[in-house]
Amino acid sequence: MIDLAQALLDGNRRALARALTLVENESEKSEPLLAALFPHTGRAWVIGITGAPGTGKSTLVNEVAKAYRKLGKSVGIIAVDPTSPFSGGAILGDRIRMRDLSGDPGIFIRSMATRGNLGGLARATRDAIRVFDAAKFDLVLVETVGAGQNEVDIVRAAHTTIVVEAPGLGDEVQAIKAGILEIADVLVVNKADRQGAAHTIHALKAMLEMGHPSSRAGMLNHHGRVMQIENGTPADAALWIPPIVQTIAAEGKGTDVLIAAVESHRQHLEAHHELAQIERQHLRTELYDRLRDSLMARLLQTLPPERIAGLVERIQAREIDPQSAVQALLSGN
Amino acid sequence: MIDLAQALLDGNRRALARALTLVENESEKSEPLLAALFPHTGRAWVIGITGAPGTGKSTLVNEVAKAYRKLGKSVGIIAVDPTSPFSGGAILGDRIRMRDLSGDPGIFIRSMATRGNLGGLARATRDAIRVFDAAKFDLVLVETVGAGQNEVDIVRAAHTTIVVEAPGLGDEVQAIKAGILEIADVLVVNKADRQGAAHTIHALKAMLEMGHPSSRAGMLNHHGRVMQIENGTPADAALWIPPIVQTIAAEGKGTDVLIAAVESHRQHLEAHHELAQIERQHLRTELYDRLRDSLMARLLQTLPPERIAGLVERIQAREIDPQSAVQALLSGN
After folding, report:
1. Do B41 and A318 touch (CB under 8 A)?
2. What is the pLDDT of residues B250-290, one digit of tens each?
3. Phi-psi category of A51—alpha, beta or left, where left has phi over 0 and alpha has psi -120 to 50?
4. Which of A283, A311, A324 shows the shortest C-beta gap to B315?
5. Cβ-Cβ contacts under 8 Å, B38 against chain A
6. Residues A299, B291: C-beta atoms closer than 8 Å
7. How close, in Å, is residue B14 to chain A by CA atoms?
8. Which residues lie closer than 8 Å to A280 by C-beta, 6 or more apart?
9. pLDDT, tens digit, for every residue of A255-265?
10. Which has the closest alpha carbon to B190: B76, B62, B96?
11. Rg of chain B taking only CA atoms, in angstroms
12. How far apart are CA B83 and CA B87, in angstroms?
């Protein structure tokens, strides 16, 4: 394992691929590897990109990766597919992407699907970010399909979170925004040339103003012009207001502006000493997650399986309720 | 708490509302309540309804509820909104629904949003199902917005899972289906009068055939005719093949066929003794979830907060890796 870690730190791509497979499979072997890599982490900038299906998120991720490559930055992409608990989905997106980005040694793409266990995907994503980080990638883009709570947990491992919207996705999507907006550092209206784009931007502005009543959102169109919202007042210096960036990812338009917005968010966090605080929060969450898993693993080692099976039967017969069964197990009765 | 439980068992609606609030808030008080209610549970049929935004899922849930009411069944509805970790989304859907269904004492609707903690919503939903069950509701409809892993976990508490699709939601939605299909007991193509419906049905059939190669899916249109797929062979008696039901929920078309499909699934489970097995699996999952939570709560009671904070600082300084920190905590060093 130390050999694998050293090869990865030395920039060996096959070692990177193998390490990513180990963390994706939540293999036992991944723990010593992660421990060996950990001192070499904390440098990469992690960008979470999320949004509803149909927003053109994958195309946007490609364009963002290409734009960072032009700036000489190396980019790791983790395409997370929580909608595919068993198989299939992630591979499709991967294949489409590979056609476009393959052959560039400064880009490495990995798709990850759940194996069906709750929280497993968020854990594997967190560890994969760390692997890319140790392999000295400047940026890690974490893309999630969908916009549920799990995606929220996944992008919570990011430094900058981009939420992608698009015109004309119906009223139900509107309802989604309310929640997802609160995690956005940068908002993108992709397919900005489509009918209804003005309406989408208007709705986002209205929601941002509700969420940040003390100031007004700045807005960038895909030509890079900053458009101040009517009666705009300068934002509080310490308060980050998510800018709204318009893109047409399919034509490569607006991604330079988007990257400028990400860099501006990064400078904001660094200037206001928020970065260390964010990292501390991430590590704290990780410590709790790992504690929970280790406690459970330790208990299950000491419990005979037939003890659990017997209790489940008694619960099913309504002889004991589930929480009382837990207390019986923990008190050793 | 015993008074609240008794009032709920006696059919008091205010007690029901209060109990649902207790479980949604994951209040300490909910535990004795749930323990008191538990012996009176295990009767309700739980239907999970999920699908991507834009499929018209909420309208369909309304129609299903109304159709069951016509059959004299009482219906509890839990509208779960995992996309709203903080506020907002769930309430919107609730209000729209209330206009349509309010005033009927045989229907009770509760929206639930996450409070931001992973797994909390799935737990609260599980407990809310139990509250409705104890309050003698014949059916509990659990609707989730979106189609991510969390939704999958939520509908795993159901007896019958309905996955809703609709024509023309784009290619990315297609990718979602691969994963979500595997949890479907009944497939619905809503908005079946829309352009592209035939294409959607065709794609679903193709996926079903990949998933169930030993036989062919039966298909019901919204007039209730069973359409055998070309070269259709009779399904293995013990194997349930998800039927594809076409609906136009906005016009109330096809819901009677959908309900017939649900009832047919129920009879299948009962006839093949799969029901007890499904319940045992649900209870086992619950026991594990509760064990994990109780173990963590017990540990945190014994750990001074500054011990955790000190370790997080050392992790951040890269003096110790996260898993070694866990081992230090658990070994008491």
Report:
1. yes
2. 999 999 999 999 999 999 999 988 899 989 989 998 999 89
3. left
4. A283
5. 318, 321-322
6. yes
7. 24
8. B312, B313, B316
9. 999 999 999 99
10. B62
11. 22
12. 10
